[in-house]
Every structure is written in structure tokens, then in C-alpha cells.
Design brief:
The chain has 338 residues and is an alpha/beta fold. It has eleven helices and 13 strands. It has a domain of 228 residues: Rossmann fold, CATH 3.40.50.720. Helix 2 links the parallel strand 2 and strand 3.
Length: 338
Amino acid sequence: MSSTILVTGATGYIGSHTCLELLESGYQLIGIDNLSNSREESLRRVQKLSGKPLTFIRCDLLDEAGLARVFAEHPVDAVIHFAGLKAVGESVEKPLLYYKNNLSGTANLLEAMANAEVKNIVFSSSCTVYGIPEKLPISEDFPLQAVSPYGQTKLTIEYMLQDLHASDPQWNISILRYFNPVRAHPSGDIGEDPSGIPNNLMPYITQVAVGEREQLSVFGGDYDTPDGTCIRDYIHVVDLAKGHIKALEKLQDNPGAVITNLGTGQGYSVLDMIRAFAAATGIKIPYQIVERRAGDTTAVYADAGKAERDLGWKAKRDLQQMCKDAHRWQSKNPRGYL
């Protein structure tokens, strides 16, 4: 009998791709989401791609009674927790919104899990917990110093989970700190569909490529990097989704509370990405250097060795494939899931 996994934030970008990998790996799925920044259409397409059904429930993690009903009505073996607000810039402008939504929502989820005796969870954390690293690449034992409210919420949830395990060692917790996912599934049927102006680089590039936006805004050209633009570790979202499957499998070994980076170990600048996209697709992206964005750091990329050693996971898809898959998604869906 296959395990049943509850996925929070299931209709979102990384959530939907992970749901597809879970279904294709033979798991039973319950997806919940409040649909505040995503659409249920993503899961309809996931079911079509996989040829397998899942259960979707519209539920907000701030709704304690609704969460309790989900666990009362559906036997769950483990949870993968994606749900949360995630825009660094917005978090600087609206910190209380982020603290209330991300922290209170997670506390409610963990309480509902504890009440239902479900003590296996994979948490979607972020490289933002490292803040401005003193050296590169970043390994899991680096100092933690989140510099944005978004990063602070991720870090606080990490502490929450570790305290929970310390209070009750029966909890098995995998904290995945991932770097910069870029889209999309090779089919072009599911991908990143941000509301309004994208906060992430690749959807901004692809929206310009298909004519939805005139040009790309590059936030800051005076960073201490070879070309003056920020450097990030871009990871294909399918590789990232597969990392969650590996983390879920690891929970069966009762590892306790473990922390793992998911990245490629290679950093690329914003201008590198613009050039790579042009090389992969033949489309030149017009851009303008604008002011730096609050909360951004100069350079961030992973030491991904622990993921390979402990989870048997390694990113396989290169920059060219990331760019081609991203363009295919946007070309087939110029306005996202609308």
C-alpha cells in the first residue's frame, strides 16, 4: 500500500512540480492551497500529465478548524510543506504580513499534525537563511543571518521544527534549503505563473521573450561581481522536485531533524542568464539596469555535497535545458494558466 502525502501550497510553482513527481513515484496525494497566488489549473494539468488522480482541498493554514478537518478526514503518512508568502522585496515592505502568514500558518500545521499523530515532514526552506555569506560555496554549517523578513520567517520555522524534534524525538524532519529554482516541466504544460510583475528572474526573462513585457529590469549593476550583477545558483525545478522525493524516502530511516542544501554548486550572474537564454533560444532580451532591490545579496551558491552523500541526489539539468524548458512553458502559456 502506497504512502499518502499531504502537500501544502500544492498548486504553486514548486508544489505542483513536486506533486507530479510524487504521483509518478506511486504516492497517493492530498494537496491543499488557499489559491492566493496560484491556480487549481496547475493540479488539473499535473493529473493529466501523470494519468493519476489526487485530492485537492482549498484550505488556508490560518484556518485551524479547516486544517483539523483535513487530517480528520484523510489518513496522512507525511507532509511536504511549501505554503507561504515568498517575495523578498514584498516582505521588506510588509513584514507583519509575512510573519503572520508564514509563522502562524506553519504553527497551525504542526499542531494539526501532532494532534493527528503525523510526525514526518519535509520543509521548503531557502538559501536566504544564510544572509550575506562570508565565503562561497555555502555549506549547511554556515552562520545563519537572514537579512529580509521572508528569510527570517524561513529561519524561524527551521528553529520551530528543530525545537519540536527536541521536545519529541519521534518527529522526523527534513529541512531543504534550496537555491534559485527556474522553470519548467519539459512538457511545457506546468511552470511558474507569478501574479503581476515577476519577482524571480526567469519568468521575467520569458515574459519579455514572448512579448508580454517590453524589457527586463536588472536590479543593480554595481555589485562586487565580475559583471556587476547578482550571482545565484539556478536549479531546474524538476531536479528540485526530485530532491523532495529523496528527502521523503530518507524520512523512512528515522533521521531525526536534518538540514540539506539543494543547489547545483555553480553560480551565474543575471547577465550570464540573459546570455544563456539567448544562446538556448535565439532570442535577445532587452534589459535596463535599475536600482538595487531591498533584501538582495551579492552572490549565493551552494555546496551541494551533502545532498549527494546523504540523499543520493544531484542536479542533472544544465543551464541550456533550464532556458529551453522555461521558454517552452511561456510560449505555450504566454499568460500563464489563464
